[in-house]
Design brief:
The structure is a homodimer. Chain A is of the alpha+beta class. The first copy, chain A, has two domains: about 130 residues, Sandwich (Jelly Rolls); about 80 residues, Winged helix-like DNA-binding domain superfamily/Winged helix DNA-binding domain (Arc Repressor Mutant, subunit A). In chain A, strands 1-7-2-5 form a four-stranded antiparallel sheet. In chain A, strands 4-3-6 form a three-stranded antiparallel sheet, covered by helices on one side. Chain A has a two-stranded antiparallel ribbon with strand order 8-9. In chain A, helix 3 crosses helix 4 and helix 5 packs across helix 6. The longest helix of chain A has 27 residues. Chain A is globular and about 55 Å long. Chains A and B meet through strand 4, helix 2 and helix 4 of A and strand 4, helix 2 and helix 4 of B. The structure holds a DNA duplex.
Chain lengths: ~240, ~240
DNA sequence: TTCAAAACATGACAAATATCATGTTTCAGA
DNA sequence: TCTGAAACATGATATTTGTCATGTTTTGAA
């Protein structure tokens, strides 16, 4: 029996996340090209996938796990600008605009992430018009949600933003088997860095939600008890 | 002499903004297709170019003028999420993602805006791989600046955000002949809706900047007197 | 030119939220 | 299993910023 810890990276054909990725309808031959050139790495909490200010040399693709994309200000405070899950790609924004990374990326939990060299990615883009269209759609969706967040940050109080963040997490990462507990367990600090507020404020508001029987808390696990009230608290209308 | 007010729309070949637009290197024949199918309209302050929730039927292209793209919350408060100028296209985000418009667009000053039907735009996308790449780059840039704004809204006080907004306006719309006055004259309210704060707060802070000799104010015209101090006030480091 | 509406301006005050301090609990590594 | 560090929690307080009120100035349309 082998001692090596290195996780086996599946062939792209067998990738559990392929069907929900941008490569879902890529012809076998093209997929082979990716598979041949790709590398893979298991990232643990505390490691970084890439750093702001460094040059992108390829595209990351999440086999399993959950990832945060974030910025850091002078005082060291994080702001999470985007989240990603299995099947999602990372680093396409900087790769396409030909710039240095403008954010950091790090796993929220142990994550297996493949790496596709930039030359391979760009040659796929050239030959596969459909792939371009998919990238454009991802960028469009990202831009839409980013602009929604700008408006929310400007116009909504923290309480509403936190409630909305819980709903977004539910939507994005899904629920556990009990159909009520969020499928992702963020620290209070990470949650604060999503919402754009102080950690203490998130702690206080979560306690309020719990007192109001809207959620239940068990460590980092958040269970939605009263979805209707949560939607009302988020004050969503569009 | 003709009485009609209708402004003559130039042929795309002669469009003053073509060289700085995504169509700058399109072959003559393709440009002819656009020109043949396009319409044009002069929009004045108070009119809308498109509305959130309506279906995009084509792409807008600014011949001259300045445009704001904004959202409105329940209480009727605007948040400006993006700005545009001559040569820029509008409405590509929703068009590409195949959704209803997620924002409003309106001119900041009298603007001549052409309209390219969606079928024409999509057929250009199919045949012209270079155009796809340009759209991707625009989306990437928009996403980058949107994510920067998210971080700023979360982490920076209003004073710094306002100073940064003035620098961004300077960069984006340029300066007048005196090399100091911003090339765009926003109302205090529009400026507040860019920064994401109350109109009164913008008025107060602009007065402070004037007292500190950083800017001079003449109606809606803002003249930058001390660029260095403005950069310091914006507290930019990246 | 006039006049009403919009924009600008400023003060007083209230509300939301950050910060600081302190203590407890949880968790991961030795 | 132990133990130190990180995460969680809560109170007290300070600060920022929004809101409301009021008055002035500017602007654009008749």
């Amino acid at each position: 029996m082998s001692i090596r810890r290195k996780i086996d990276i599946p062939h792209c054909e067998d990738c559990a996340s392929r069907l929900c990725s941008i490569f879902n309808d890529l012809p076998s031959e093209e997929l082979g090209k990716i598979n041949h050139s790709k590398g893979g790495n298991l990232y643990k909490r505390g490691q970084n996938i890439f750093y702001e200010g460094t040059r992108p040399s390829g595209l990351y693709c999440i086999n399993f796990g959950k990832v945060k994309i974030y910025k850091i200000d002078q005082s060291g405070k994080e702001q999470i600008v985007r989240l990603a899950k299995a099947g999602d790609v990372l680093g396409y924004r900087s790769l396409i605009s030909g710039e240095l990374y403008s954010s950091f990326a790090a796993p929220l939990e142990d994550s297996l992430i493949c790496f596709i060299p930039r030359t391979v990615f760009f040659s796929l883009l050239q030959t596969n018009a459909n792939l371009s269209m998919k990238i454009m759609k991802i960028l469009s969706q990202d831009l839409k949600s980013a602009e929604n967040r700008i408006a929310n940050m400007a116009q909504k109080p923290v309480r509403e933003r936190l409630a909305e963040a819980l709903l977004i997490l539910r939507e994005f990462y899904g629920l556990e088997d009990d159909e009520a507990t969020l499928g992702v367990a963020l620290t209070r600090e990470d949650l604060a860095n999503v919402v754009g507020t102080a950690t203490e404020t998130v702690i206080r508001l979560l306690s309020e939600f719990r007192e109001d029987k809207i959620i239940a808390l068990k460590g980092r696990k958040i269970k939605i008890l009263d979805h209707i009230s949560l939607v009302k608290t988020a004050n969503i209308f569009d």
